[in-house]
Amino acid sequence: MTVVNDEAGYASADIGLSEATARDYFDLLKPRVMSLVVFTAFAGLFLAPGGMNPVMGAIAILCIAIGAGASGALNMWYDADIDAIMTRTAKRPIPSGRIRRSEALAFGVALSCFSVATLGLAINWFAAFLLAFTIVYYALFYTVWLKRSTPQNIVIGGAAGAFPPMIGWACVTGGVSIDSIILFSITFLWTPPHFWALALFKMRDYGDVGIPMMPNVAGQASTKRQMFVYAVLTAFAGVAPALTGLASPAYAVFAGLLGLYFIYGSIRVWQMPETDEKMIPAKKLFGFSIFYLFAIFAGLIVDRAVALLIG
Asked: Where is the chain membrane-spanning (predicted)?
């Protein structure tokens, strides 16, 4: 397959269909992001009152995973031009020439329709509506508009990544509740410090492609202050499930300790000199933030499992 650079600035096959493998299409789904989506969605489904037949639950999680992957494919379709320039994304399937942009679009649309329709027919249409809304929110509202137009892109766009536990909850209950809103809030408030930590040590990449990330627009000092505020809010949200009875006091202690370390990490970033080229504190906070979110939802799952076993 001959690969050329087209007028959009990314590598693509010059004629015919690409020779993409199954792994290339799998990479198009953003599997690492998908794994987080699946995990938080499962947490929402598992924590929801009433429970669900395991087979139906597996179908629901599969639909949510496919919907998340479809969002990733649509994101890569639209961002192919800037992905080719940024160092951390240049090897993605489209800019590397393994998949044509038109194929990614068709793949993303097909998976979107399939996941939403299947979830509606097999589970319930309210959950399907939430899934459809999430896909549109991420692929169009965030990717097409927010990402390239405002430094608040991550704050507002973070809702897309926060919906999965609410969708999982809706699969069981057919609606939302204060508890599912709290699960949504944990990820929503976690998103800014997580992505701004990345943006701090990838400022040059975002600057090269003109993406108005907070450090590039407002500066490092303002970004660090905001990261601290969001870290504090995230820590409080992480403990909140124990305040509504969704989780036990033991979980509250566990979440509280994680939250305190998250706040500590944000303070270390705040203290980081702007001349620090290595930005080790930002890199450490980015890594810990991923662990934090997995640990919080894992803690909720374990806490509920223990309650079911002893109750």
From this structure: 33-52, 58-78, 99-117, 123-142, 154-175, 181-201, 227-244, 250-270, 290-310
**Domain termination residue (choose one: 109, 144, 174):** 174
Does residue 214 sit in helix, strand or coil? helix
Number of domains in the chain: 2
**Which pTM does this prediction carry?**
0.90
Cα separation, 151 vs 157, whole angstroms: 11
Residue 156: C-alpha distances to residues 71, 76, 140 (Å): 16, 19, 13
Q: Are residues 152 and 284 part of one domain?
A: no
Domain boundary among 126, 156, 174: 174
**In which residue are the tokens 């489904």 written?**
45
Q: Indicate the angle between helix axes 54-78 and 101-122, nearest 10 degrees.
A: 160
**Could you read off the pLDDT of 233-264 as tens digits, one per residue?**
999 999 999 999 999 999 999 999 999 999 99
Count of Cβ atoms closer than 10 Å to residue 291 Cβ: 13
- First-to-last alpha carbon distance for the chain, in angstroms, is 61
Listed in sequence order, the residues at least 6 apart from 262 whose beta carbon sits closer than 8 Å to its beta carbon are 193, 231, 234, 235, 285, 288, 289, 292
Closest to 294 (Cα-Cα) out of 265, 267, 258, 266: 258
Q: Which CATH number fits the domain that encloses residue 110?
A: 1.10.357.140
